[in-house]
Write a structure and sequence with these properties.
There is one protein chain. With 160 residues, this protein is mainly alpha-helical. The protein is built from seven helices and four strands. It has a two-stranded antiparallel ribbon with strand order 1-2. Strands 3-4 form a two-stranded antiparallel ribbon. Helix 1 runs antiparallel to helix 3. The longest helix is centred in the last third of the chain and has 20 residues. The N and C termini lie far apart (48 Å). The mean pLDDT is 89.
């Protein structure tokens, strides 16, 4: 079996100087190298990847256990090694009626309740129904967080 890292390095060596425009001779390129979901388009047709490169990347993902780890995350296994617990990214983003079972219990009902409470809090804050201790409107937000809890707000601020 070929070392997937070596195969990818060889692929890169062979394709590094290839012009991306030449890949558009393939009329199915956009359809084959893009994905869309919920109004979000991921268009990777304008990169220097072809079917061989995609296969090599998938081979590397399999060989290094990425796909197996992804499956463990979706199954609710304790993949967060520092905290010895499940990573609940999928549950937090779930809009499905399918339960997300962690240690024998569906974690979606309490997450849905918390989302409703957060939405109501944000609406009360924006509308002015929620006042400061002095009766005024809130004008500033202080975000205190580390790691992942800080990343989302930091990215939102940067984007704005």
């Amino acid at each position: 079996m070929t070392d997937p890292w070596a195969a990818l390095a060889e692929y890169h060596r062979k394709t590094a100087n290839r012009r991306i425009l030449s890949l558009f001779d393939d009329k199915a390129r956009f359809a084959d190298f893009s994905a869309e979901t919920d109004g979000l388009l991921l268009d990777y047709s304008k990169t220097n990847i072809d079917r061989d490169g995609l296969k090599l990347l998938l081979d590397l993902a399999r060989a290094t256990g990425v796909l197996a780890r992804r499956d463990r995350m979706f199954q609710g296994d304790a993949i967060n090694e520092t905290e010895d617990r499940a990573a609940l990214h999928t549950a937090l983003r779930s809009r499905s009626d399918q339960p997300v079972m962690i240690e024998g219990r569906d974690v979606l009902p309490p997450l849905r309740l918390m989302r409703k409470r957060m939405y109501a809090f944000a609406e009360d804050l924006r509308s002015g129904r929620l006042k400061t201790a002095g009766g005024g409107l809130f004008r500033n937000v202080v975000n205190i967080g580390i790691g992942g809890s800080d990343l989302g707000p930091r990215m939102a601020v940067q984007a704005l």
